Request: fold
Amino acid sequence: MQIHSLIPELRAALQNRGHIAIVPTMGNLHAGHIALMTQARTHGDTVVATIFVNRLQFGPNDDFDRYPRTFQADCEKLAAAGVDVLFAPGEADLYPEPQQYHVDPPEIQHQLDGAFRPGHFRGVATVVLKLFNIVQPQVALFGKKDYQQLLVLRNMTRQMALPIEIVGGETVRADDGLALSSRNAYLSAAERAEAPRLQRLLKRIGTAICDGNRDFVGLESEAAGELDRNGWKTDYVAVRRQSDLQVPQAPEEQALVVLAASRLGVARLIDNVEINAASGH
Ligand code: PAF
Reply:
């Protein structure tokens, strides 16, 4: 696996490499990231992973400074997964001067996670557009665990007419259902034992909806209440349309997703479950 931190070197290395599939990450790689790398292999001749902890997408009270950085271990995992090229720029490589031009996503950037992390999706969209311009991939893969991020980036790519196919990867979970996340590293042993409740509750809402319950607000507040009674501090539990993450308007809408973000100790966990009410799962 080639490793580059400088943009000109990376560009030279990517000449005549055929179809390029990119998997942008912030490092601290787990099996969810590696599944995306494996999936990327089926989409491109050359798989490019990127590792960059992007300051622009962290708020002043977010975990930028303590975000886990595990570069050596990450390189070993990427090489073992058959990644061809790793782009791991330093801050001065990607932001040699303060970034004054930004991608400003529409209203969705202020909803759900965006309501609790002002500026987050603007920072994500800006860095991803920059990575796209540097790597010039034909395909880009992002995990569905960050469901809203995937939607924002898909819409950005379409509206900016970027010649890139956006592919979503399924969430990879531990045996007890907890979605793999770099932020799980912040959980104590007791919190780790409690953490799978989040997915259990989302699945329970999905089952209730498939059984005909359309009291979304009731289902959301019941789940948030159960989380908070068990030591969580919930930002939101929300039933939304898959297509645009807006509140379902008509009872017959069936492609839904239940999303949640809640804090357990210092860890802010997010998760979601897609529901196809028509087929019953
Ligand atoms: O999902 C992530 O790890 C980040 O938000 C991304 C897409 C790499 C942008 O920094």
User: Anything to note?
Assistant: The CA atoms of residues 177 and 199 lie 6 Å apart.
